[in-house]
Amino acid sequence: MKKLTLTNKKKRPLGPPWLRLCLFFSASLSMGLAITAAMQWISIGTLPGVLEWAADYPGHLAMTALLWAVPVAVLGALTGRLWLAALPVGAVGLILALVDYFKNAINGTPLELSDFGLAGAAGNVAGLAGDLTPPEDFYLAAAALGFCVLVLLLTGRLTALEGAGRGRTGLLSLTLAGVLLTGTGTRTVGGWLGVDFYTRMDPAENHSLHGLTLSLWRDAFPQPKTPPEGYDQDYMLEVLARIDQLLEPREEPEEKPNVLFILSESFYDLQRLPVLQYEGDPLENFHALEAESVSGAFHSHYLGYGTGYIEMSMLYGINSLDLPPGTNICFQDSEVYERFDALAEQITRSGDYNAEMLHAYDNTLYNRTVTYPLLGFNKLYFSDDIQQMGIDRPGGAYGGFYMRDGYFFQGMLERMKAVNESGKRAFLFGITMENHQPFEPEKFNYQCQIPLVAPDFTPAQRDIIRVMLEGVTRADQALGELTDYLRTCGEPTIVVFFGDHRPNLFMPGGDTVYTLLGLCPENDTQSWTPEQINDLYSTDYLIWANDPALLDGLAGTRRDSSITALGPQLLELMGTPVSRYWGLLEKVSEVCLTQTDLYFVDGQGRASFSREEAGLSPEALELLELRDAVVYDAVYGKRYITEEMNLPPGA
Residue 18 — pLDDT band, cuts 50, 70, 90? Predict the structure, then answer.
């Protein structure tokens, strides 16, 4: 009787090589389409929505599918198994779509290429956001992709490559990948498919029009920035001469006060919201201080997030519109932050000030340990450092999920005292955290000092609004304590206090408090009017001093300000000599408070979609063109006059 033996035989490919090659690329493109559809499914939330997008933008669909098909083909050729290649590539697509979903849930804005600068701190970002739960569509899309991979596995003999054919396929796939990794190649292929890689867009519009993948890809190949007409050295010297004509040098002021420049997380006047009522004033101290301050609306560039980007624009005078698309303003090469002298350096250049930064969280986010020293700050203090200052405060350091604002302000006062004892004045930039998201009902142990009246909201929605109410109330109380102390401390001090942005306030079901109150039609900013954008992208600020004389007779006045206007406004009040650059920013802030991809706000707080629609005077347009030329020269150009812009007018 013969003994039976079992042997493993490798299954041979089916069909002639040319047919398998055609099927290999067809299957790669089909997998690219599947990944595209899955990602759009997670992003849009419905399959009919995906089909509508595909029908409206077939070129965008084809380009996106190609971008995913190429890595599938490359890995398929390298491994010899197309299903094995589709597995990791599909997983990357799903992860990107999930991150995009979470970012929209946290901040109401899509994932941008610039967000990848925070990839190393993703754990901390997620911790700040609170509980993140994938949507049901994520699991459905993942299951659909898994089915596609299974089909590739079961039909693997039809797409298997061997020998020289496999090598040639790999070379062809790598060549196509190389073409798409260049700006010229991407724009050429995009041109064939009707995809615009040149027009700069607001991130929300870019995401909605092109989808997640293509919006990120567009930002990876920066659209060319148009230089000023006639840009060369002679042109820039004319710009320099014109700036000198517009600016006047300033002498050092006799009075040199301390400056506490405070970014209060998600602080704004809740009474600007309709319908909601409070049995008490949550901003009792802020409102009282307005009579002694310069105050008004603070035009932010963000809603729900972006604190680090706000800091950089405020301290350096440029914003995302000045940089290539997809560029993270917090993660530039070090030399970029030294092209212009920063706000702190305008104040410390006399030698009479020390500049320090204090942050109520740790040092992991927004690259602050790198950028702040480059922007002229001598020392940085984070939450652990502040807790080593020996502060004795009832209730301890923490309230809710983060350091108490009152505790943090005591840390700022400790540093002000230490700097003054060294014989210098203090310029302290402080960043609070107590009112930071997540706005979960248990954040403040379900406490709310001021009762809320919101009959049109569900109990779950009211719980979230109460967290916002309590956080803003605590921030206001800490401000009152700070200014009460400064009234008696004997050291002349200016306090600049502003909310960086409004909170996102997402409600169960996906709406925000703003949509429920009728302040905007939906979360997607594409359908908003300029006035709606301007309203929701604004908070409140004040500049207060313990000696009214420090405000140059302006106490009690109203004036709109913004991210790029508040620094120049402070320098103007202090009478500090400034460089040409900051002198120009002062002039520009009189005619333009905000200029981003999304909207434009003139010097009186009026909003438009762009400065072309704003109806500006020739004088205002000239100031903006001068700023454009100076920034272009420094960021994109030959830096003909960048050094001169850091000198006083006339130097």
Answer: confident
The set of residues, in sequence order, having a beta carbon less than 8 Å from that of 408 and lying 6+ positions away, is 358, 360, 386, 430, 432, 433, 434, 478
Beta-carbon neighbour count of residue 126 at 10 Å?
A: 14
Q: What are phi and psi of 541, to 5 degrees?
A: -145, 165
pLDDT digits (tens, 9 = 90+) for 96-127: 999 888 887 666 678 888 887 665 655 555 55
Residue type, 65: A
CA–CA separation, 409 and 477 (whole Å): 11
- Prediction pTM value: 0.87
pLDDT digits (tens, 9 = 90+) for 480-509: 999 999 999 999 999 999 999 999 888 887
Q: Crossing angle of helices 82-107/122-129, nearest 10°?
A: 50
108 backbone φψ class: left, alpha, beta (φ>0; ψ -120 to 50): left
Using the Cα atoms of residue 472, residue 475, residue 481 and residue 486 in order, give the sign of their dihedral: negative
Calculate ∠ Cα 106-333-642, nearest 5°. Answer: 115
What dihedral do alpha carbons 614, 618, 624, 629 form, nearest 10°? Answer: 140
Q: How confident is the model at residue 4 (pLDDT cuts 50, 70, 90)?
A: very low
- Spatial CA neighbour of 486 closest among 417, 405, 589, 553: 417
CA pair distance 48, 55, nearest whole angstrom:
10
Q: How far apart are the first and last CA of the chain?
A: 107
**pLDDT digits 0-9 by tens, 556-597:** 999 999 999 999 999 999 999 999 999 999 999 999 999 988
DSSP 8-class letter at 316: H
pLDDT at 510 over 90: no
Q: What count of Cα atoms within 13 Å lies in the side-chain half-sphere of residue 567?
A: 27
What is the distance between the alpha carbons of residues 535 and 524, in angstroms, rounded to a whole number? 15
| Bond into 568 cis (ω within 30) | no
Residue 129 has pLDDT above 80, yes or no: no
What's the one-letter identity of residue 474? Answer: R
CB atoms within 10 A of CB 511: 15
Quote the distance between the C-alpha of residue 468 and its chain's center. 21
Q: What percent of the chain has pLDDT over 70?
A: 95
**Cβ partners under 8 Å of residue 536, min gap 6:** 303, 502, 514, 519, 520, 528
**What one-character-per-residue DSSP string does 386-445 give?**
HHTS----TT-SEETTEE-HHHHHHHHHHHHHHHHHTTSEEEEEEE--TTPSP--TTTTT
Q: CB-based contacts of 62: which residues, under 8 Å, 6+ apart?
A: 193
